[in-house]
């Protein structure tokens, strides 16, 4: 028997506490809400709407009530027993959640007819907001936004002692609700393109594809503004903001993918793989995706300039291939469905071209860094445990070296979880970003991604 197997059979020094009666009550409401949504998915029209809205109400009340009971009376960051609970340590509950999430995404993308009973109850809301009946994407956007708001409330309670975390969480909740859900719907109601101002190329790649640009320009001055907005945000604002603030201004404050990871994905952030092998896969895959979208964009524009002579009828297929494998399977099915198994930033680490683009800017041109005070580090490992991007923060803290990694999204949880104030997020001058002591650490230089 191996050492790890023998160790895993030993009883915990402090057994995992059972949920209190009040916590069980709130969790029961969550379970009843999910059950009601399941009933709505299968019920006849007369019962469907009642079951749907009852399910959402119970689910919301239970999630917020449990969050208040769990974190409302505590101080500090509570990450106790995460590795001993079936729901947060890749146990049976985590696998069940992962299968359910993955299944939902698969049905949503390829067999939406099976979700018709969940789509139709939203017709009234969709008519009010968008001036048209609901569809699978309105269902998805509504569920997505609700998840960010509910789990954002949980995050606000859990990290309420940290001003940085409070403001950051409120920011992603605002951008998801206002600019990624309400505003696109209002634009549709006004017979304008459904435009998402919080997504830019290369993440929202089709906004700068020739077909996407042409489609937007057909909508007059507003369409031209949208095209200009996309170009400026991708090639001017992004480098400038990243220079001053690092990639956190987008990945942890604005982006909807990051917003879901920081709220709904927070219970799973410790599951990110910290091994060097994982970092090698991360670097090889995410920059390949970035390269692919850059080449795809360039080829499509060259093809358009030559009147379609370069790619011919394969032009659309070339773009759709990227959309299918990266936009649908990677970003959706794997990126969110695998939260309970691989952690909350699988898509951001391994597949997001925007994260890769921002990471290159952050590592080579930004003023952002996380400074460390090695003399105060007690090697507790809290910082590494909460890093959702797979960075072994403790190694830097022990040596007192600044953390300058392309992967770091600046969420600040390493600093928030540190009991000694060892880590600080800073936007200092470019001079001195790398300390002279780093030059003698060959291993450190190799792991800077």
From TrEMBL:
<dbReference type="GO" id="GO:0051539">
    <property type="term" value="F:4 iron, 4 sulfur cluster binding"/>
</dbReference>
<dbReference type="InterPro" id="IPR017900">
    <property type="entry name" value="4Fe4S_Fe_S_CS"/>
</dbReference>
<keyword id="KW-0812">Transmembrane</keyword>
<feature type="domain" description="4Fe-4S ferredoxin-type">
    <location>
        <begin position="400"/>
        <end position="428"/>
    </location>
</feature>
<feature type="transmembrane region" description="Helical">
    <location>
        <begin position="92"/>
        <end position="111"/>
    </location>
</feature>
<feature type="transmembrane region" description="Helical">
    <location>
        <begin position="51"/>
        <end position="71"/>
    </location>
</feature>
<keyword id="KW-0472">Membrane</keyword>
<keyword id="KW-0479">Metal-binding</keyword>
<feature type="transmembrane region" description="Helical">
    <location>
        <begin position="137"/>
        <end position="157"/>
    </location>
</feature>
<feature type="transmembrane region" description="Helical">
    <location>
        <begin position="284"/>
        <end position="302"/>
    </location>
</feature>
<keyword id="KW-1133">Transmembrane helix</keyword>
<dbReference type="GO" id="GO:0005886">
    <property type="term" value="C:plasma membrane"/>
</dbReference>
<keyword id="KW-0408">Iron</keyword>
<dbReference type="Pfam" id="PF13187">
    <property type="entry name" value="Fer4_9"/>
</dbReference>
<dbReference type="GO" id="GO:0046872">
    <property type="term" value="F:metal ion binding"/>
</dbReference>
<feature type="transmembrane region" description="Helical">
    <location>
        <begin position="169"/>
        <end position="190"/>
    </location>
</feature>
<feature type="transmembrane region" description="Helical">
    <location>
        <begin position="222"/>
        <end position="245"/>
    </location>
</feature>
<feature type="domain" description="4Fe-4S ferredoxin-type">
    <location>
        <begin position="368"/>
        <end position="396"/>
    </location>
</feature>
<feature type="transmembrane region" description="Helical">
    <location>
        <begin position="25"/>
        <end position="45"/>
    </location>
</feature>
<protein>
    <submittedName>
        <fullName>4Fe-4S binding protein</fullName>
    </submittedName>
</protein>
<dbReference type="InterPro" id="IPR051684">
    <property type="entry name" value="Electron_Trans/Redox"/>
</dbReference>
<feature type="transmembrane region" description="Helical">
    <location>
        <begin position="322"/>
        <end position="342"/>
    </location>
</feature>
<keyword id="KW-0004">4Fe-4S</keyword>
<keyword id="KW-0249">Electron transport</keyword>
<keyword id="KW-0813">Transport</keyword>
<dbReference type="Pfam" id="PF12801">
    <property type="entry name" value="Fer4_5"/>
</dbReference>
<dbReference type="InterPro" id="IPR017896">
    <property type="entry name" value="4Fe4S_Fe-S-bd"/>
</dbReference>
<keyword id="KW-0411">Iron-sulfur</keyword>
């Amino acid at each position: 028997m191996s050492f790890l197997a023998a160790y895993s059979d030993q009883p915990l020094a402090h057994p995992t506490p059972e949920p209190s009666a009040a916590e069980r009550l709130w969790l029961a409401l969550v379970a009843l809400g999910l059950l009601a949504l399941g009933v709505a998915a299968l019920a006849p029209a007369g019962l469907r709407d009642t079951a749907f809205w009852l399910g959402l109400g119970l689910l919301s009340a239970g999630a917020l009530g449990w969050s208040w009971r769990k974190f409302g009376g505590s101080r500090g960051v509570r990450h106790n027993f995460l590795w001993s609970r079936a729901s947060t340590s890749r146990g049976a509950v985590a696998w069940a959640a992962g299968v359910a999430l993955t299944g939902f995404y698969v049905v949503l993308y390829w067999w939406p007819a099976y979700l018709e009973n969940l789509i139709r109850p939203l017709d009234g809301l969709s008519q009010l907001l968008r001036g048209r009946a609901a569809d699978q994407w309105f269902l998805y956007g509504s569920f997505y936004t609700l998840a960010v708001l509910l789990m954002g409330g949980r995050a606000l309670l859990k990290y309420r002692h940290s001003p940085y975390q409070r403001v950051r969480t409120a920011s992603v909740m605002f951008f998801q609700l206002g600019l990624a859900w309400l505003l696109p719907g209002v634009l549709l109601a006004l017979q304008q393109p459904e435009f998402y101002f919080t997504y830019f190329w290369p993440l929202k790649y089709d906004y700068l594809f020739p077909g996407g640009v042409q489609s937007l320009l057909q909508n007059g001055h507003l369409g031209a503004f949208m095209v200009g907005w996309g170009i400026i945000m991708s090639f001017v604002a992004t480098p400038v903001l990243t220079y001053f603030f690092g990639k956190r201004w987008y990945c942890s404050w604005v982006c909807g993918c990051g917003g879901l990871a920081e709220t709904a994905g927070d219970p799973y952030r410790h599951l990110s793989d910290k091994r060097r092998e994982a970092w090698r896969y991360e670097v090889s895959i995410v920059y390949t995706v970035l390269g692919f979208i850059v080449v795809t964009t360039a080829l499509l524009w060259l093809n358009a300039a030559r009147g379609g002579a370069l790619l011919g009828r394969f032009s659309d297929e070339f773009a759709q291939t990227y959309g299918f494998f990266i936009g649908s399977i990677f970003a959706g099915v794997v990126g969110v469905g695998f939260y309970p198994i691989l952690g909350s930033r699988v898509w951001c680490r391994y597949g997001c071209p925007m994260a890769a683009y921002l990471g290159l800017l952050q590592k080579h041109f930004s003023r952002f860094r996380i400074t460390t005070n090695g003399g105060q580090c007690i090697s507790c490992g809290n910082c590494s445990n909460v890093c959702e991007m797979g960075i072994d923060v403790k190694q830097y803290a022990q040596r007192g070296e600044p953390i300058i990694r392309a992967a770091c999204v600046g969420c600040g949880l390493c600093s928030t979880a540190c009991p000694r104030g060892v880590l600080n997020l800073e936007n200092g001058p470019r001079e001195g970003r790398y300390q002279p002591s780093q030059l003698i650490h060959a291993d450190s230089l190799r792991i800077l991604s």
